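TL;DR need structure tokens for one chain.
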Amino acid sequence: MKENPHRTRINRNNYILKRSVLITGCASLDVNARWILYLNPSTQPEFRFMRIESVHQKLYKTNRKLYALQKQKETVQLALDHKPKSILHRRECKELQERIDGLERQITFCRNQLFLIPDANGFASVREAEQEYHAAKKALEQVRRAQANGMESSLRMRKI
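>> reply
TL;DR here they are.
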């Protein structure tokens, strides 16, 4: 049974979802069907923030992992520098050097991941993604503040 592409439905949050077809790519004409969210103006900043928050969390976790790997590399490098350079300690030095090389590979991989996250989500750079996150957060706070002020004024009007 085929689904009618022009049918609308309402989910449990009372957002109207409408089926639309988006054509992506030029040569292959890859057609993807997606649900587009039609929101009222007060929920648009919330939707924008929810979309960018996951990107921000991924960037934050990757950045923390990169920092931890760099600190670990510094610790191992310091241990290697304090090892005596005699023939008796050559095996330990080799093991430490191999560990440092492994950490460098992990750091390189983490850095690449850090640059791929914004690309995968439609941003040119990490800075642009972070600016979008802060702008979305600020807009959401303004909407929530306005809603709270509106609720307070409506409560005052009811009491009178």
